[in-house]
Amino acid sequence: MTERSGKCLCGAIRYTLKGAPRAITACHCSHCQKQSGSVFSLNLVMRDTDFEVTGETRVFVDTGDSGDPVMRHFCGTCGAPIYATIAAAPGKIVLKAGTLDDLAGLRPQTEIYTEHAVAWLEPIAGTKRYPRHI
């Protein structure tokens, strides 16, 4: 995989991905819906060693299904969500795909928390669906 880059809406936070995603997932959980302001969030699960960020993010500490903290990083200037780190998944980051400069070639492999999916949204062709997380 070639490097990919991305940024927040105002450009204060920039990042580079140095490796391939471990997974590409459409998450329908209520927290991703609220954070994204949409009906799901397209996320790339990356090794934290393959992610380099510049600029200082602000962090909202959320609680995941496991009861463990989820640190949601966002731009303090424009408010764009960038990535999350999950205490239950050390060494990984969950990147908001909409912040990438180019989404070419990226397609979700799974849909999670489909029990929260809106009724009118058809399953994404070719994905495996899970009512909760994997």
UniProtKB/TrEMBL annotation:
The entry's protein name is GFA family protein
What organism does this protein naturally occur in?
Stappia taiwanensis
Q: Which residues form the CENP-V/GFA domain?
A: 4-110
* Domain of life, per lineage: Bacteria
Tell me yes or no: is Lyase among this UniProt entry's keywords. yes
Q: Which family does it belong to?
A: Belongs to the Gfa family.
Q: Name one Pfam family in it.
A: GFA
SUPFAM superfamilies given for it?
A: Mss4-like
The molecular function terms in GO held by this entry are: carbon-sulfur lyase activity; metal ion binding
Q: Which UniProt keywords apply?
A: Lyase, Metal-binding, Zinc
